[in-house]
């Protein structure tokens, strides 16, 4: 049975969070002399001299309308990476607890574990890039606090079997963190609709991918109200700046534009796969539910270096476990994809 008090670090249970000026007064006023801000403004066209809303209320309300999740179940961070780090700092005792990661997967889970002095137990995905359920069960002990699952997975591009994830949610007493950074491109539905079913579920999403806001650094976590309260307690007071909040709110009013881009990305992905299959050095292209494809080639290093010499940058993933020989290619615009294909046609 999941009980958040059995997971929380003792110092976090007893933590009194920093109380900012904007926590103590949230209404409207004609004169603000409480936060030691520069009252004269900013040397910019837009004034950023006032501290932002520490809980990003307006952005959360708009996200609530789009996602169908109450605002109280939403955490916003400086990218999803901040949410990952806060989960470690809230629930994992350094040098004592452990988490489970399932490589090949997003590298920040391991990095955050290292930063926080928490053991990351690796249970490799199966050859078809699905969960090794027996391996995960064997890796779990009384100090296992978090299991990280990226779905659709980076760098492989595939979605993880939903039944397997639900089995973990139903049987693991810690938190199951599902990273859905690429969910907008997937045929599978998001797990955020399951929040009321699983108290130990945390879903990560981002505005960096389909929404095209990578430069703003706005990540989302969806979870039970008690988990969100913990994350808000631990985060820095003003973790999402005012410019990012304003621009994210503006972007969130353009859902149709994003949906059109998603549709075109999927069309371009299918087209790129067909064209790449014509090359003799392409040995396999793995099924993708994301805005990138994983391509197995006969000589990834030479192909990568050749493309770099032509000003085309992809990712060499050939040294990643279970991705030997593989290059990861993001789906570009039609013209960018054409340049890639035309350049590869000249490769010898």
UniProtKB/TrEMBL annotation:
Keywords: Amino-acid biosynthesis, Aminotransferase, Histidine biosynthesis, Pyridoxal phosphate, Transferase. The modification N6-(pyridoxal phosphate)lysine is found at residue 209. It holds the Pfam family Aminotran_1_2. It is an enzyme of class 2 (transferase). GO terms for molecular function: histidinol-phosphate transaminase activity; pyridoxal phosphate binding. PANTHER family: HISTIDINOL-PHOSPHATE AMINOTRANSFERASE, HISTIDINOL-PHOSPHATE AMINOTRANSFERASE-RELATED. Homodimer. This is Histidinol-phosphate aminotransferase.
């Amino acid at each position: 049975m999941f009980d958040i008090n059995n997971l929380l670090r003792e110092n976090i249970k007893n933590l009194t969070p920093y109380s900012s000026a904007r926590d103590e007064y949230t209404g409207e006023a004609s004169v603000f002399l409480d936060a030691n801000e520069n009252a004269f403004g900013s040397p910019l066209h837009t004034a950023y001299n006032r501290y932002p809303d520490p809980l990003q209320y307006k952005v959360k309300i708009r996200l609530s309308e789009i996602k169908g999740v109450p605002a109280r179940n939403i955490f916003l961070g400086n990218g999803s990476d901040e949410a990952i780090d806060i989960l470690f700092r809230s629930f994992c005792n350094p040098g004592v607890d452990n988490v489970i990661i399932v490589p090949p997967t997003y590298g920040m889970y391991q990095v955050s574990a290292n930063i926080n002095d928490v053991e990351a137990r690796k249970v490799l995905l199966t050859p078809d890039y699905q969960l090794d359920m027996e391996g995960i069960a064997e890796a779990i002990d009384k100090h296992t606090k978090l299991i990280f699952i990226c779905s659709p997975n980076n760098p492989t591009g595939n979605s993880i079997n939903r039944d397997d994830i639900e089995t973990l949610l139903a049987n693991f007493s810690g938190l199951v963190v599902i990273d859905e950074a690429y969910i907008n491109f997937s045929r599978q539905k998001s797990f955020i609709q399951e929040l009321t079913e699983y108290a130990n579920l945390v879903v990560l999403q981002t505005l960096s991918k389909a929404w095209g806001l990578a430069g703003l650094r706005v990540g989302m976590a969806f979870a039970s109200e008690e988990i969100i309260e913990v994350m808000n307690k631990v985060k820095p007071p003003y973790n999402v700046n005012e410019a990012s909040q304003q621009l994210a709110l503006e972007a969130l009013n353009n859902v149709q534009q994003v949906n059109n881009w998603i549709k075109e990305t999927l069309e371009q992905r299918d087209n790129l796969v067909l064209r790449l299959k014509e090359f003799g050095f392409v040995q396999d292209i793995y099924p993708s539910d994301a805005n990138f494809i994983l391509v197995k080639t006969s000589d990834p290093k030479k192909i990568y270096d050749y493309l770099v010499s032509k000003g085309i940058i992809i990712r060499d993933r050939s040294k990643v476990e279970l991705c030997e020989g593989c290059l990861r290619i993001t789906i570009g615009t039609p013209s960018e994809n054409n340049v890639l294909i035309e350049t590869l046609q000249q490769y010898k």
